Amino acid sequence: MIARVLEPRLRRLAGKFPVVTVTGPRQSGKTTLCRAVFPDKPYVSLEAPDIQDFARRDPRQFLAERRDGAILDEVHRVPEILSYVQELVDRTPGPGRFVLTGSANFALLQSIGQSLAGRTALLELLPLSLDEVRRFPDPPTDLLDALFRGSAPATFDRRLTPDDWYPSYVATYVERDVRSILNVGDLVAFQTFLRLCAGRCGQLVNLSALGADAGLTHVTAKAWLSVLEAGYVAWRLAPFHANVTTRLVKTPKLHFFDTGMVCYLLGIRSIDHLREHPLRGAIFETWVASEVAKARVHRGEPPGMTFFRDRKGNEVDPIVDLGRDLLAVETKSGHTVASDFFAGLCTFETVVAAARPRRRTHGFVVCGGNDSQRRSAGRVVSWSGIGAENWCSAP
After folding, report:
1. Domain 7-124: which CATH class?
2. Does the model's pTM come out above 0.85?
3. In what order do the strands lie in the sheet with 373-375?
4. What radius of gyration, in Å, describes the C-alpha atoms of the chain?
5. What is the pLDDT of residues 102-134, one digit of tens each?
6. Angle at which helices 207-214 and 187-198 cross, to 10°
């Protein structure tokens, strides 16, 4: 196992809260991380039907056998047990007693909010960041290789190819989770919807158009997309808003956490195919946005991200809101830095200065080249250097 960026925060919060809950997408490494950090704690998985039945039918006895604490894995399978965990930790408080893991869904988050509010630290473990990928043997050294191979821990830990991993992952986990939450009668329609979402990564998402293309109603498309978000498959980036007179786009953008999955869903089966694909730039954009999100979430910060786009097409994506300071990031997949790379940043800085003169904007251009440099209009960051930047504080 490699060291994960989330590990120090997990250890620290386990020393302060009686319960620590780690959520995130399936197969993101939650179980591996928790068992490595807490090797002396008893471990039990609620994935097995007999264990589920025991926990559901006799929760008091189930927890009595683990009264000193345990790692309860896949706790979303029996969310009602959280009320009994609350009873135990209220009766005998102490830090780091229970460590819970689960794939986030509506039932789990609702149960945590109702039963363990104020008693648990809630952490999110997303797929691998680039810095974490580099801790494995034979990491990608080329941008297109990094985009194509994605960020699933299993592909690096077991040295699987994307063709080995993503077909079974989508069928086994993504589609199963959707069926467990929603009554999806037409699985083919959902598969079509999922591929259409991948084709819109890094782009404005219009639910009516997306639903029409998939043969769905607007309501159904909205519900299915919400499930993909709850499972950390896709996420919507909200538009930047301020008290400005400039007309700004109000439609969110759609991003994925794993570009390897995007490539699989788009039928991209090789790096050469990706190199010539018309969505290569959009895939790079969603990769940059997800890398910034991972850098923040794994350090305990909320994503706090938006994007800027005006009616003239000037765009900055993503924007990290630090309060008084804004980190404005433009993505360009080209290797050679051109002066027009900074056009969106300059427009955004002008808009912010006019609306909120006390706020400071720090501009970055993340490009597909290998050289980082400082320009008067902002800092140029190579794709390989994105993890070296501090996306949690102002420079």
Report:
1. alpha beta
2. yes
3. 203-204, 253-256, 234-239, 305-309, 315-321, 325-332, 360-367, 378-382, 373-375
4. 22
5. 875 555 666 676 678 788 899 999 999 999 999
6. 130
Q: Give the dihedral of Cα atoms 40, 126, 321, 228; nearest 10 deg.
A: -130
CA distance 324 to 239: 18
3-state class (DSSP) for residue 24 = strand
User: What is residue 371's DSSP assignment?
Assistant: -
Determine how many CB atoms are found less than 10 A away from the CB of residue 387.
18
Nearest Cα to Cα of residue 68 among 31, 95, 45, 30: 95
Report which secondary-structure segment, H or E, holds 220: helix 218-230
Q: Which residues partner with 381 through β-bridges?
A: 366
Which residues, other chains included, contact 85 with Cβ-Cβ below 8 Å and sequence gap of 6+? Answer: 19, 63, 72, 98, 100, 115, 116
* Torsion over CA: 221, 225, 227, 228 (sign): positive
Q: 């029996």: which residue's tokens?
A: 78
Q: Which residue type, as a one-letter code, is found at position 218?
A: H
Largest CA distance in the chain: 67
Q: Sketch the domain layout of the chain as residue ranges.
A: 7-124, 130-388
At position 276, the amino acid (one-letter code) is E
Q: Closest Cα to residue 101, out of 127, 64, 71, 60?
A: 71
Give the count of alpha carbons within 13 A of 33, CB side only: 31
- What tens digit of pLDDT does each residue of 346-392 get? 999 998 888 878 889 999 999 999 888 888 778 999 999 999 999 99
